Structure formats: structure tokens, C-alpha cells
Amino acid sequence: MLLLGTPAIAASWTDGFNTVDTDGSGTISRAEWDANESKVGDPTFNPTFQTMDSNGNNSVDEDEWAAAEGMKTAIGNSCQSAEGSWCPCQNHPEKPECQKSN
Ligand SMILES: [Ca+2]
Ligand SMILES: [Ca+2]
């Protein structure tokens, strides 16, 4: 495994807040999420930015982040009990791999 240039993987979802909040503003912007969501575990099971931003102010604060951990767990559980590969596209229809098959 090459470590040089490999992005840091957060140890836990909670720690991931600071990993994704790259400008240290205390909130996660959509751009920060898009650029860094792969650092907080399997992106397949990540909630979308819109889902996490429950009050719709276009940023995710620490409370919203904490709530999102439960969403991620629920998505993972749902995927494990479902057949087929609907999960990534169900939660991330904007992803290129989901659009090219349509
Ligand atoms: Ca930020
Ligand atoms: Ca918010």
C-alpha cells in the first residue's frame, strides 16, 4: 500500500467532522462534503449533503453531523437486507456511475 499522497482516513464518524471541515469553520459546506466524503468510510452508505442538512441552511453543523451517523448506519443496514445494488444510486443519484446506466 502506498501511503504517500493517500488521503487521511478518519478514525470515526465523529472525528470525521474535522477531517471534512477542511477550512476549520466549524460547519461543513457542500463543497467540503463533496471533496472529502470518501474520508469518512464507505461513501456508498453516506447520507447525501441535503439529507444531513436538516435545517436547510446549506451547511452541516456538529449536531447535524452527529445525527447523520445514525443515517449512515441505517443505510448500511438497509442495503444489507436488500437484494441488488440499488443502494448507491438510491442515496446518490447524482453520482456518475448511477447516471450512466439510465
Ligand atoms: Ca467548513
Ligand atoms: Ca444545517
TrEMBL record:
Q: Which InterPro entries match?
A: EF-hand-dom_pair (IPR011992), EF_Hand_1_Ca_BS (IPR018247), EF_hand_dom (IPR002048)
Looking up PROSITE patterns in the UniProt record yields: EF_HAND_1
What domain of life?
Answer: Bacteria
Q: Which residues form the EF-hand domain?
A: 16-33, 48-66
In terms of Pfam families, this protein maps to:
EF-hand_5 (PF13202)
Q: Which CDD domains match?
A: EFh (cd00051)
Q: Which GO terms describe its molecular function?
A: calcium ion binding
Q: Which residues form a coiled coil?
A: none
Q: Know the name of this protein? A: EF-hand domain-containing protein
Q: Which species expresses this protein natively?
A: Methyloceanibacter superfactus
